[in-house]
Amino acid sequence: MKQAAIACDRCGNDIEYLDDLMVSALWGLIPKKYHRICYAEREKEVIYQMFYLTYPVNFGMGNLAAVLSPLITIVLVWGVWNAAHSLILAVFFGIVGIWPLVLRLFVYWKWERPLSSLPIR
Prior knowledge:
Layout: E1 21-26, E2 30-35, H1 36-44, H2 46-51, E3 54-56, H3 61-84, H4 87-116
Antiparallel strand pairs: 1-2, 1-3
């Protein structure tokens, strides 16, 4: 079986184990993959803390946001539709509300699934 090559965006080395993969979303849009240690080092940098808004997609709050996003989407779309009767705003808020789930599924499909299918060493 061919081993999946997932390179860390900080150090460039391959991420070999699923437990070592940490994916953060830059400004909530652009997924960046790191080793756990590389992610921790990145989070320590003051400039990174000041100018980049990131959150881990595949741990903690990222998973919670993905689970709650369908409910948030329903509330946002219903509220906007009742308040403004604007289809364009309702669709926009629907996309914004469902985005954490879409991002979480993308991360799973693109990086977590290949790492979880590797043989155990």
